[in-house]
């Protein structure tokens, strides 16, 4: 066990966990931030996507010991009132079916648009291809990312 | 439309409502534009609300709480059910809060999600729940204002009397209304006056989903709760012994318990368990037959040739028809086992305390969870409470209660509240699969290309009846023989979205294409010819409505410009399942010398569309699901152990792999039927038929990417 000081959503947290503990489980089991989802555990589906220093990161394979002073942002901290342009676009397009993967989709889309504010549809497809939606909401995900880019 | 309300005591059982709390002005977050305004929580509203019936409570503030009893797994029932209640109530949707009801067999019938059956079952019940509440609210207003009820109008939560100019919101009449008796008969609205039904109402959980609020089973936490993960035996094996010393040495592991052939590692958080589970040394021995995929292939061949068949349908004289045939077409089709792979892995919270149990989690069948728990512990079912969380997908997996009962076992063993979580590997290797099936089709054609004989024989691995003997094209053919053969496999199976038809439709719709080719007919013309025959001179029992199927076929032909553009190679498919009709056309065009799947056009008759957004979601999602599993996904076994253990090898369809999907809905005038499943079955056939039209390659097995015929055609998928 080791002590870690983490900056998550602008707040500093102390946790005592094994240093190989993935960020995902620190967030979910120790910081009670359960918006970040567990699904595959091997960086294949993107449900666990968070931002580490603004980069979309698979938290399920990111050891807590690798975070250091980096700023972590989860879906709970993406915006104060759920009004990030991507969240608003998701609401406007009414993207979700079961909704379980959508926090990861939103986090991936938000990081992507931060780096590429005016993407082509092809660039959107490439960026969002790393997140699986088992319900098949892909058309709406694409539409929502395009809308968020437009409204940004 | 007048309708009796006395059909179900349960729906109208009143629950104890607390008394009115006075004049609190509420603003819900839908209409709230300033954070300074007071927003009543749903709990605060419920604390003052009065119950009108099992589905509906209204508070003196005029806020309406609608209870949605059926589990929500993405089919959007938590939005569409309340829409129906609110419609007949004439509620202001902005003032409606929706609450997922817990399991309560006293109040609700058929509190489950499966078979695309919720809306057809509940449509009239929900309407009556809204209409009877409106009736007593109007009666209360009439009594208060001393005017005839017939002169009162209701709109958007406001009750008005034009003559006297009196006006008030629902909340003002709640106290009086709930003392009145609900009528025996109510008048339901004319469908043409619907203002909520048929409009694209947004998902009621949208805000919570997009801001990461706890709402799924895996998000549930309780003070003092332990975490557990379970090592399960391979199929056909049982536990002999376990060495748990290394697992117990992992920091954060508090216990290891064994029940049956399962070994549970218990701890204070999830990560130590993921590590510890890998350190368990478990010895198993065969417990029956241990099977590999090579065994299944051999069994399919043997059983197809000489298995003991159960005859499901026999019309006319098949032997004579085939003897007199000018041409016989024969083909075999095969699909693999598949896991359900919902994005949220199985999990459940259980707390056993003496002879009482509290359960919380994602289940499609809360009552089954309750019953199996009661049976396991030998306690009355009413001692088990089940709270239903939102489900991160289900696809049929959560119809079973195996993962619920496991949590009960662990809680009993450790005498503490526990949440059992499955890893993705557990989920993919844990059984309850879509069964593997092989079909043999035979068609007899006369000299003019008429289909005179049709034989279907299915062999399934724990599939039950592999056929649907009253489905098309039965009823349209004089001589028919349909048989099914079962192999009792040690690989466990379960319903999987559109059970049986998820592959049968593919096989049948591909085979009909082969028949059309042999008969020298256009594939759509062949289907129209058969349907017209079923309409004018049906043979035996018809499981489908010929006119409704003709409706979707004709509209799909028109909307897809079937056969009009020689540069577009098209595949057609139509299927009836779960009371709805869906026709699909897949378009393949050559781009840079490669066949390119560009579009699927879908025409659906699911009766009245309650929520166009939800309906589009179900059709598109069903198509993506059907396409993904037809194209990419396989599950194979070696000595009782699945070889595909996570999404790196168990391949699911991704965003770049879906074509454009164009949806249309037939306005057939029928009440709403199911839509969670019916769009899936036709998809594989439409794509396979288009691939044949474009390349001459006939794909008779899934997944396509592993077939020799598919390996060199270089199919691309592109959206416009």
Word description of this protein:
- The complex is a heterodimer of chains A (152) and B (720).
- With 152 residues, chain A is α+β, with helices and mostly antiparallel strands.
- Chain A has two domains: 2-77, Beta-grasp domain (Ubiquitin-like (UB roll), Roll), CATH 3.10.20; 85-151, [2Fe-2S]-binding domain (DNA polymerase, domain 1), CATH 1.10.150.
- Chain A is built from five helices and five strands; from the N terminus they run E-E-H-E-E-E-H-H-H-H.
- Chain A is globular and about 45 Å long.
- By secondary structure, chain B is an alpha+beta fold.
- Chain B has three domains: 2-196, Aldehyde Oxidoreductase, domain 4 (2-Layer Sandwich); 217-287 and 346-421, Aldehyde oxidase/xanthine dehydrogenase, molybdopterin binding domain (Aldehyde Oxidoreductase, domain 4); 437-717, Aldehyde oxidase/xanthine dehydrogenase, molybdopterin binding domain (Aldehyde Oxidoreductase, domain 4, 2-Layer Sandwich).
- Helices cover 29% and strands 25% of the residues of chain B.
- Chain B is built from 17 helices and 30 strands.
- In chain B, helix 10 crosses helix 11 (402-414).
- The longest helix of chain B has 28 residues, at 118-145.
- Chain B is globular.
- Mean pLDDT of chain B is 94; it is low at 5-9 and 13-37.
- Classes of the chains: A alpha+beta (152), B alpha+beta (720).
- At the A-B interface, helix 1, helix 2, helix 3, helix 4 and helix 5 of A face helix 5, helix 7 and helix 16 of B.
